[in-house]
Amino acid sequence: TNIKRGVIEDSANCTRLAKLLRYATSLSGDKQISLSQYVKCMKLKQEHIYFIAAMSIDEAQKSPFIERIPGQ
Length: 72
Fold this sequence. Notes:
By secondary structure, this protein is mainly alpha-helical. The protein has helices at residues 2-9, 14-18, 35-40, 57-61, and strands at 23-24, 32-33. Strand 1 and strand 2 (32-33) form a beta hairpin. The protein is globular and about 40 Å long.
């Protein structure tokens, strides 16, 4: 959480600190990845990255903002 605060509050180092952040994705399972790793794995025609902030993966999955895809 200190790195997250630094990204927001430390304008001199925010770019360097942001590279240290890791994220859970819908495809990464329990593994967290960097934004650059996510971008490398994006589908060819994918233009946008959608995200949700939550205290846990379970909380994020239960959010009313998550669109449910039939069969998944």
